Amino acid sequence: xSAKDLQLGADLRLVFGGAGQADxxxxxxxxxxxxxxxxxxxxxxxxxxxxxxxxxxxxxxxxGSRVHExxxxxxxxxxxxxxxxxxxxxxxxxxRVAAVESLTVEAIAAHPGAVQIxxxxxxxxxxxxxxxxxxxxG
Length: 138
Hints:
Nuclear Transport Factor 2, Chain: A; globular
């Protein structure tokens, strides 16, 4: 593993399914790992999907995002802008993130109440990774 990968860490690889489900990835009866930029992208996806404060009992009270606060809200321009600010704040909350280079939050026309979040993030190592997640706020 390269020095940059070491700075970005390693974890168990997760497979994300529909309805916000995630499961640990297995290959031939062995747990899969994710390292480096892939680990950062996975961690940022989890950060967006977890409600801020949800992990307080596990000693991580500031982990997560405030995305859930917009469940049931009309996806008008003002709320999409607020959601974009919540997402940016959550992404920058990871100490491995130096900057959010670009961020779009768009309503998914085919699924009322759902949004597509797409971000380009620069890690403190200088490397760039994409984070994409769809969230149903309906």
